[in-house]
Amino acid sequence: MTGEVINLRQKRKEAARAASKVQSDENAVKFGRTKAQKAREAQDEARAKSELDGKKRE
Asked: How far apart are CA 5 and CA 24, in angstroms?
């Protein structure tokens, strides 16, 4: 019986980190947007707002 001694606390933490990583990767695919996409949407929103403001009547 010359097996490797392991620390169960460390193994539990490793398993929890792996599960967390899987969950975060799924959420990134589901909800994530790139910085370029966010910038493009902000630019479109600003353009739409300025067009609307330009068409306002006093």
From this structure: 31
Here the tokens at position 9 are: 């606390």
Angstrom distance (rounded) from CA 7 to CA 10: 5
d(Cα 16, Cα 8) in Å, to the nearest integer? 12
Q: How far apart are CA 7 and CA 14, in angstroms?
A: 11
Residue 48 makes CB contacts below 8 A (sequence gap 6+) with none
In tens, the pLDDT along 9-41 reads 999 999 999 999 999 999 988 888 888 998 999
Nearest alpha-carbon partner for 24 in 16, 14, 35, 13? 16
What's the rounded Cα separation, in Å, for the pair 38 and 33? 7
